[in-house]
Structures are given as structure tokens and as C-alpha cells.
Amino acid sequence: MLYDLTVVQFSKMLNNLNAILDKAALVAEAKKYDVTVLLNSRLAPDQFNLIRQVQIACDTAKIGVARLAGVVDSAPKHDDSETTLAELKTRIAQTLDYLNSFKAEDLAEAAERHISQPRWEGKYLTGLEFAIQHAIPNLYFHVTTAYAILRHNGVDVGKKDYLGAMPYKA
Amino acid sequence: MLYDLTVVQFSKMLNNLNAILDKAALVAEAKKYDVTVLLNSRLAPDQFNLIRQVQIACDTAKIGVARLAGVVDSAPKHDDSETTLAELKTRIAQTLDYLNSFKAEDLAEAAERHISQPRWEGKYLTGLEFAIQHAIPNLYFHVTTAYAILRHNGVDVGKKDYLGAMPYKA
């Protein structure tokens, strides 16, 4: 189930985020302003801007899955130098490619794996705790904050853009 | 696992939200303005205000879990009449009490359950799809948006307030 919760659902959310950024570009074009104004917008002076929110959403997905699969060094490196929408969309695409390289069996033992990161000073969470209490809430935090920055700046996005399509069955 | 993802983690997030609202009250008091100004704030004119974000976060948790457990009629009714912080905190507390009434075995068959709601016109999602693609992203959306409204209005909350404590092990 962790594969569906992370690899599959994180991919869906990053695709939704990508489409939301495309909507933002259309609004900027229609209103005749540079979309980089939106990319550099933030909700508070000491909060990360939209570029950084997207970068962290991507990193939360790629590093979260890499840690759960026990292959943290395999995640593609990004130096956080994106300044344009095209570069940001490339970052998302590279993250999606990386997520797509995982199969369900790669996360078969993820729930019991001990997950740590440098700032935790040697302490760890189980993979299940890490996924449920850390990676998943963080992913949604940054996607929602990116959405909120655009919403605050007049981009006409709605809950359906955030959630994406549902696999309804008749 | 759906019990941990929803009942347990939704409870944690609602407790975090409750603590964030307490922080907002302290800021309002220190800056000598009425906290209901914050409660009625929003990020865009056509977006729900903070009161509504909290109400929907609670409803997403209580109705989501009720549907997954197959007991949708058991969820406490709320008429969305909250106007004060105290009333909003009562709503959260009642939702937490309700979540706390579930045991892991109540959701043992949740993944395969067919979940529907009136607006889906007879279509359904499996419980697993509903949890991963609908209830969980919605819960985080409304908690993050509540957080963002406060952050935008100068309440000094941070990621740790949003995530809450982690069960680190040495």
C-alpha cells in the first residue's frame, strides 16, 4: 500500500501541480504580466516563494520514495537553480521519471525500514511512520501552498485541479 | 494501515490545527485585535475563510472515516454555525472524540468497501482509492490552507506546528 500512497499518488499530485502551473501561465499571458512574477510570489515575507514550494514538493516526493525503497543515493540531484516556468516543469518531469522507475516490489519492505536523515541526529522513524507522519503531510503541504500562492494571486484554480481525476466506477 | 492513515493521523493533524489556532489567539491578543478577524480571513475573495477551512477539515476527517468504516450515519452532525474560536475548538474536539471511538478492526475491510456520496451520481470508489486520492489529500488541503491563512496574516506558525511531534527512536 505504501507504493500506492507514495509513488503512485505523489506522481498524480505532481502532475496536478504541473497542470496548475500551466493554468498560471495562461492567466499571466491573458493579463499580460510575466509568469515569473507568480513564480516569485509568496504568502508571507518569510515564507518560501512558489519556485521553492515546487522544488520542495519534488524533493519530498523523490527523496521520500528513495528513502522508503532504501536507495536514497539514487535520487536525481537538483541544485535548486530554477528561475523560469520551463525549468520548474523540467524539474517536475525529472521527478516524475524517477518515481516512475519504481515498482511496487521496490517498496515491499518499506514499512519496517528504519528511515533517518542528517538533521535527525542518528534517530529514526519506521518507514510506515515516516510515510504517514512526514513524507505524505509534507508533500500535500507544499502542493497546497503552491496552489494557495496562485489562488491568492488571482489564478482561477479549484479543488478539482488540486485533486485531479477520480477513478470512479459505475 | 488505513486506520493509521486516517483515524490516527487525521486526529494528529486536527490536534495540530487546534494548537495552531491557539497560537493565532495569542498573536491576536498580543497585537490587540479580535481573533475573529483571523477567523474570517481568506486568501482570495472567492475562497472559503478560516472558519470554513476548519469546518471542512473536521468534516473530511469525520465523514471520511465514517464512510471507510461503513457507518456514515454515525458521524456527529454539525450545522456550520461556528463564529467564535471557542466554538471552532469545540467542533474540533467533537470530531476528535468521534475519531477516537474507532478501533483498528472497524476499518479492517475499508480498502475494498465501495464508497460513494450523493454528488457522485451513483458511481463509487473503492475504500483504498477514496482514502488515498480523496479523503487524505482533502484533509491536508484544508489544514494547510487554514495554516496558510494564518501565516499570511502574520501568525508565527512553522512546519513543526503543522507536522506535530515525530515518534523518533534512538
Structure in a nutshell:
Two copies of one chain form a homodimer. Chain A is mainly alpha-helical. Chain A has six helices and two strands.
**Beta-strand content estimate of chain A:** under 5%
Give the largest chain-chain interface (CB within 8 Å): A-B, 42 and 43 residues
Helical fraction of chain A: 55-70%
Global mean pLDDT of chain A: 97
* Oligomeric state as shown: homodimer
Helix and strand content put the structural class of chain A at: mainly alpha
Q: How many strand units of chain A?
A: 2
Structural Rg of chain A: 17 Å
Q: Please report the number of helical segments of chain A.
A: 6
Uncertain segments of chain A of ≥5 residues (pLDDT<50)? none
Principal-axes geometry of chain A comes out as globular
Query: What is the CA–CA distance across the termini of chain A?
Result: 24 Å
Strand order of the largest sheet of chain A: 1-2
The ordered H/E elements of chain A are HHHHEEHH
Main sheet characteristics of chain A: 2 strands, antiparallel
